[in-house]
Amino acid sequence: MKKIYRLKDFPIDEKALMLQETLFHNANGYLGVRGNLEEGLPQEFNTMRGTYLNGFYDVIPMKQSESLCNLVEEKDTMLNVADFQSIEIFFDGERFSMLDGRAEQLCRTLDMDAGITERSLAWHTNSGKHIQICFRRMASFVRKNMFTIECRLKCLDADCGLDIHSHQKALVRNYSNPADPRVGQNNKLLLHPTVHLLENGTSVLECETTVSSLKVCTAVQHELSRKMRESISYDEIEHSCTASYSGSLKKGEELRLVKYIAVCDSRREAEPVKAALSYLGESFGELDELYEEQAEYLESFWERSLLHIETDDDSGLAMVFNQYQLLQSVGSDGICGTASKGLSGEGYEGHYFWDTEIYILPFLSCTNPELARCQLGYRYATLELARENAKLLGHKKGVLFPWRTVSGRECSGFFPAGSAQYHINGDIAYAVVQYYLMTGDFEYMAKEGAEILIETARLWMDVGNYSKGKFVINDVTGPDEYTCIVNNNYYTNASAKYNLTWAVKAARLLSDRGMWQELEARLGVSSEELEGFGKAAEAMLLPYDEALGINPQDDSFLSKPIWDFENTPKENYPLLLHYHPLCLYRHQVCKQADTVLAYFLFDGIESRETMLSSFEYYEKLTTHDSSLSNCVFSIVAARLGLKDKARSYFGDSIRSDLVNSYGNTGDGIHTANMGGSYMTIVYGFAGMTVTESGIGFAPSIPDDWRSYSFRIGYMGRSLEISVNTEKASVRLLSGEALDIRLFGQLVRLNDKTEVSI
Amino acid sequence: MKKIYRLKDFPIDEKALMLQETLFHNANGYLGVRGNLEEGLPQEFNTMRGTYLNGFYDVIPMKQSESLCNLVEEKDTMLNVADFQSIEIFFDGERFSMLDGRAEQLCRTLDMDAGITERSLAWHTNSGKHIQICFRRMASFVRKNMFTIECRLKCLDADCGLDIHSHQKALVRNYSNPADPRVGQNNKLLLHPTVHLLENGTSVLECETTVSSLKVCTAVQHELSRKMRESISYDEIEHSCTASYSGSLKKGEELRLVKYIAVCDSRREAEPVKAALSYLGESFGELDELYEEQAEYLESFWERSLLHIETDDDSGLAMVFNQYQLLQSVGSDGICGTASKGLSGEGYEGHYFWDTEIYILPFLSCTNPELARCQLGYRYATLELARENAKLLGHKKGVLFPWRTVSGRECSGFFPAGSAQYHINGDIAYAVVQYYLMTGDFEYMAKEGAEILIETARLWMDVGNYSKGKFVINDVTGPDEYTCIVNNNYYTNASAKYNLTWAVKAARLLSDRGMWQELEARLGVSSEELEGFGKAAEAMLLPYDEALGINPQDDSFLSKPIWDFENTPKENYPLLLHYHPLCLYRHQVCKQADTVLAYFLFDGIESRETMLSSFEYYEKLTTHDSSLSNCVFSIVAARLGLKDKARSYFGDSIRSDLVNSYGNTGDGIHTANMGGSYMTIVYGFAGMTVTESGIGFAPSIPDDWRSYSFRIGYMGRSLEISVNTEKASVRLLSGEALDIRLFGQLVRLNDKTEVSI
Fold first, then answer.
1. At what angle do helices A527-539 and A450-463 cross, to 10 degrees?
2. Mind listing the pLDDT tens digit for each residue in A460-476?
3. B481 is catalytic
4. Could you tell me the CA-to-CA distances from A715 to A205, A365, A695, A735 in Å, in that order?
5. What is the pLDDT of residue A632?
């Protein structure tokens, strides 16, 4: 199957182009460049022209409207670091632009086997000459610091004058849109030039951030068709550098310009300039090799990761697209995480949320465990900042991970919907456990995982307390931001219970292998403390309403009136943009899966009847205004046997960014939903569960699908699950035999085991 | 009894002077001038040099750290309007200053019979000449636009060279202190000059605000001792004007300079400049008459208002001080309210809170009902803004008064501790009822009061809902800001119940007099709606805990751990400056009286046992970090017969500003506490209650007091209550005979009724 996403003869307007900038961005987990037009756009166009490095940020003020004690008053913001995309082209002196009605045969392609985006079109000059133009871009997965832009030009029917100006500009600003609360509103210049060199046609710019004092260097070198080489000149002005070619394009001749860009920053390299020049030197002139490496890398990726769906619609391609975007977004060096918008745009300022642990890590743990390990490693590296955060919030022990961050420090402005989301601790703990259960990576557990589990568990002990014999957790905010600062949020309590339980288990695991003493001493853990964890987990209050037979989202949720959905006009969604928070808080209305999410993560936490009743109850109340919702409803529906609903929620999730269903994909992709759409199949339709007692499946398939299949790694083995309308099979592709559960029955998997649905 | 507060030989340092600026400010409910030193202070001194007009404000941006729907993003701020205090004096060319160690016999006096402040001292020149210096200031209660500064100089032992420069400066800024969240942090120049005249020695400056487009004019004219008149010259530069005298001071001769200042603004006068000149013209040269009027005004005020206490300490004087400050603070024109700091400083930016209705109006309703009426009139005038505020918060009907404001629009930055304090509606409704019950002013009820009661009641119907047969109110914040966004805050529900009940009663009252139809039609009130009010009031949930026999502050209050008071160091109070809000929210700890306040306002709402248990419970949890707390604990203690506690809380309240017990009196007085200290006696020790069935008393007296007495107006009558250690008496000073309750027994009050304690 060719993994190509292609758009043809698309409209050329602001909205379409903003969306394409996102959909056709090129990234490799470190470096991301939006799919902006090389030739630029008129100034009045709303465009987000951006280059981003994962984890590269500055710190900007975030004044509180009222100063309360220990509120966050500054935040990390992902920086737009340099514009090296620009290539202005003139044919017979006429400036090439897509906007003047002279462009035809428009086509934009994302080739997910090649790892390349392409934009091609035909353009005619005023005198009627026909020009073929093609741009190809790549962010190398193998050489993370390298980006290339290949530009090919051909005039079909005549000779034609040709002028090219290719720029690199260091002093760029972030995108800002004061009208939209979901993107940054800071457009101050935060980068200050430190180095500016132009030597032998290589332009080197280094800038430093204002507060975080991080440096970024971009080095650009142009490779040209032989005949062009002598006619090129270089010019530098005000921290930008331009390579100019002036000559002609002979009839039928193809001219090629390749821009090699090396990007380095001081978080990864001691001397960014030196490193950038070195990377550039290694790659310059090797475009074909770079392309080849890229394809090989992706071949291996798809081999491990591909989730293949056969349906009558384009769900299969959409799934491939989502998986590819996750690969583009995930940091792989342990000093950065995965931004909620990946590296595709500035929405949410490049912050990392729980999206990573709950929505993206499952995909990574199943297919690319070393990447999952990097993500968990990033959190471990920020443990001290999480400890400081806990102290700021008045806790005497434990760590509290930030709700949103780049550097690891809390960057939430409105704490009731930010810092108060203590479940982030449970989410990270959950991911630690799931990674361990999927990979059996005991070394990780011993080195980092157990420490995270203990320190997060400690926080629960400090934030919660016993009341009438139950362990209660007051004044926190669950995943559903339409209700803030509540008592005993079901999801939070369930995840705290899991966290506490696993802190004890981790200690036992290490103890069993004689590796507990070091950590025990270092963290000062007593057996009484572990006992306390276990007791609190046992006594954890999980709200249950006898009358309705459901789990209330929190202590007071059911005492509120149900939102008047009937009289809420369609244009008032998402509600958060149209109603004061207090108005939302005061109603039974959910932005997203909350209690329902707990049913997915903590399999078997309630009886099927309770889960079914709750599912149906919350379904009526949930607006899915968050992109993190539909996938979870799909998974839980599938597990409850509500196949049609599962299929329907899957449909709402799978194409979300491709069709811009949230209206803001222009600001960046929704990585959590992409991970979520993967999970709808693996954890939903295929019914995969992973617990201490092993891995299990309970496959089903939507009525309108022909088949789906995927491969996962589990405890050093490779498994392939294939499901079609006739049967479902699980195969052991490599590794030792093991027992798995199929629909709850233990089955020995040696070579090939098949079950019929 | 002479009502003079005097400070002698005080220290001259920043803290002392800031405090004196507040304590010796002169105000008349319209115009307030801080007691700054005429001769100025060195630039590095922290001083709040200010002139304020009640209700004169500009609108400044208040950016939210995260933009949520309909949050407040700008706020009113009371402006510092002009500096006309400055008088620089040179003796033999040496600049007079209190700071150079040459000042002696320092004395500052607030004469509350005369309505004048005085600062007098002796100063010696380097050559040893002894100068007597005296400044007197007055903000006229009779001519609200007039302020005077009288300066008298005498050299006792020699002739002395004398130079005086008296300034008026229009372009002033507000005080700012970025380190203190309780004062403003805006120091932009918000006033822009529109008129600048200097004619016949009269300096006229008019300025306009930036956003609110209000104009203020200050006109200054100097009256001089005869011999000085010829040696005076005037100079203007950059929107400031200086009158300069150069001459000499003969041995033993007293020279006098009087500065007459007229202040007018465009909220009250169509042409402020014209009006200011007219006021100035009427008063110029009439200082003695102004002084006389002032004394007469105060004589009448004290006649009506004086609460006289005889004790061994200075409680009596402190009470007089508090009453005087209230008079200085209360707006009397119906277009302004009473700022929490009066007109004495910029703390809380000159905003009006519930302080007015719950803490200050009782004093006014008892003694100066026309002022009470003005305050209620201000709220009525802002009804439309309150309706808009309700809409912004998502309510379909009713009005929601702003938690803090000048203009009437909501100015809370952090809504969980601001807009969410819905009890403001109940507080205003309560004040409407109490004013009516005290005065019998039916005309007010018909014209304004009933409408407020109906519209506030409507909001409760929209914010609350039925749950399990009870009317519940979710997601509001009660008076205690150490717990935010709670369900069924006892105080809020109690005040909503009262509000709803009285909306029905008001309708019936008007109906009984045939005056309901107009309002009924205008507001579209149906009998079903009124029935709904009654039903909701009846079904109102008032939390009660069987086990403890107390009223929990809200639904979940008791499930939280009690604050660790034992391990909280003294320097960590007030807690709000040392702990993150979430940390406070999650504990049983109260900033101030909350449930206990309900016991005072809604007399008889619970059984004595419940109130006693609750009182004792909350007493242990309350830090009194708010200045609104001690007085309430005193009142309720007195009513519960806990005499020693009542006395002790009274002691914590009565001298609060005089001894700067909250450490921030430098930013302004605490008017609510001042009203509260009045109430501790009238409503506390004297046990006054006013209900539909009449007025009652249950007098007691602290063991260490000799006597107390006060006069109040009630339903057109004047009553005097005198209590000493032997007996308590209630006398009817004027008006028709009436029945009153004494310790619950009906007594006919004709001429004089006495009861023994």
1. 60
2. 999 999 999 999 999 99
3. yes
4. 46, 10, 10, 9
5. 98
Which pLDDT band holds residue A308 (cuts at 50, 70, 90)?
very high
> Which one-letter amino acid corresponds to residue A76?
D
- Our CA angle for A622, A626, A629, nearest 5°, is 60
Task: Check CB contact under 8 Å for A68 and B576.
Answer: yes
Report chain B's C-alpha Rg in angstroms. 27
CB contact under 8 A, B474 and A556: yes
Tell me the pLDDT band of B181, cut-offs 50, 70 and 90.
low
CB contact under 8 A, A414 and B64: yes
Least Cα distance to B303 among B686, B753, B733, B683 occurs for: B733
Rounded-to-integer distance, Cα A475 and Cα B65, Å: 21
Question: B100 pLDDT band (50/70/90 cuts)?
Answer: confident
Of B417, B561, B582, the CB nearest to A420: B582
Q: Does B556 touch chain A (CB under 8 A)?
A: yes
Between chains, do A474 and B586 touch, taking CB under 8 Å as contact?
yes
With an 8 Å Cβ cutoff, are A65 and B63 in contact?
yes
pLDDT score of B184: 58
A685 Cα to chain B: minimum distance (Å): 37
Model pTM?
0.95
Each as own residue / partner, the long-range contacts of residues B572-576 (CB below 8 Å, 24 or more positions apart, any chain) are B573/B623, B573/B625, B574/B623, B574/B625, B574/B662, B575/B482, B575/B623, B575/B625, B576/A68, B576/A69, B576/B481, B576/B482, B576/B625
Other beta carbons within 10 angstroms of residue B320's beta carbon come to: 25
- CB spacing of B414 vs A484 below 8 angstroms: no
Asked if A559 lies within 8 A of B72 by C-beta distance, the reply is no
pLDDT tens-digit series, residues A615-670: 999 999 999 999 999 999 999 999 999 999 999 999 999 999 999 999 999 999 99
Whether A176 contacts A186, CB under 8 Å:
yes
Q: Which one-letter DSSP state was computed for residue A96? A: P
**Within its chain, how far is the Cα of B51 from the centroid?**
16
The single residue of A481, A520, A529, A606 carrying the catalytic annotation is: A481
A181 shares contact with chain B (CB less than 8 Å): yes
Residue reference for tokens 């939102």:
A563
Distance CA A286, CA A304 (A): 27
End-to-end CA separation in angstroms for chain B: 26
Average pLDDT estimate for B272-300: 97
Are the CB atoms for B630 and B692 separated by under 8 Å? Answer: no
CA separation, residue B595 to residues A7, A682, B601, B636 (Å): 65, 53, 10, 11
Q: Pseudo-torsion of CA A685, A691, A696, A698, nearest 10°?
A: -30
Q: Determine the Cα angle at A390 with ends A387 and A392, to 5°.
A: 110
pLDDT value at B176 more than 90: no
Q: Does the beta carbon of B234 lie under 8 angstroms from any beta carbon of chain A?
A: no
The answer on pLDDT for B12 being more than 80 is: yes
| Closest residue, chain B, to A554 (C-alpha) | B556
Using CB atoms, which residue from A65, A577, A586 is nearest to B463?
A586
Please identify which of the residues B94, B410, B481, B606 carries the catalytic annotation: B481
The alpha helices in A10-110, defined as continuous H runs, are 14-23
Provide the 3-class DSSP secondary structure of residue B387.
Answer: helix
A342 touches chain B (CB under 8 A): no
d(Cα B73, Cα B61) in Å, to the nearest integer?
A: 6
Residues of chain B in contact with residue A464, where contact means CB-CB under 8 angstroms, are none
Quick check: A445 pLDDT over 60?
yes
How far apart CA B125 and CA B103 sit, in angstroms, is 10
Q: How far apart are CA A316 and CA A707, in angstroms?
A: 10
Q: Indicate if the alpha-carbon torsion angle B421, B427, B429, B432 is positive or negative.
A: negative
Nearest CA in chain A to B482: A68
Query: Would residue B564 be called left, alpha or beta, if left means φ above 0 and alpha means ψ between -120 and 50 degrees?
Result: beta
